[in-house]
Amino acid sequence: MMHKHAKKRIRRYREFSQSIQPWMFGDFETKRTCFWTDFEGEDAPPLKPTYRTMEECRKALDLPRGAKPVDRVHKAAPGPKRWAERSKFFPKVAEQLAIQYAG
To answer: Distances in Å between the alpha carbon of 100 and those of 35, 45, 92, 96, 97?
Structure first.
């Protein structure tokens, strides 16, 4: 989440249109990702999640009861390769973006 003082410093700052988690699409991890879906004055429809709950995703992936999404990004160790780990995108989210927006 961006701090309110940072938001004030950004000219023409606007709130995101949608916030997702990778587990919503079948990548059983957590890393909040925000989208701004208004392009040239037109709003694109929100990305449709595959799963509504973590439990639904866990069951679909046949993971053990009580399994929690991996928090890999937030727990990445400091070091020269941390930026690369934090920059990775999630394949199933990318796939859903392509299906929904590219047709």
So the answer is: 14, 9, 12, 6, 5
- At position 8, the amino acid (one-letter code) is K
Q: What is the pTM of this model?
A: 0.83
Structure tokens at 29: 């991890």
- Tell whether 89 is covered by a domain: yes
Residues written for the chain? 103
The one-letter amino acid code at 101 reads Y
Q: Tens of pLDDT along 20-74? A: 999 999 999 999 998 888 777 778 889 999 999 999 999 999 999 999 999 988 8
Residue 28 lies in a domain: yes
**58 within a domain of the structure (yes/no):** yes
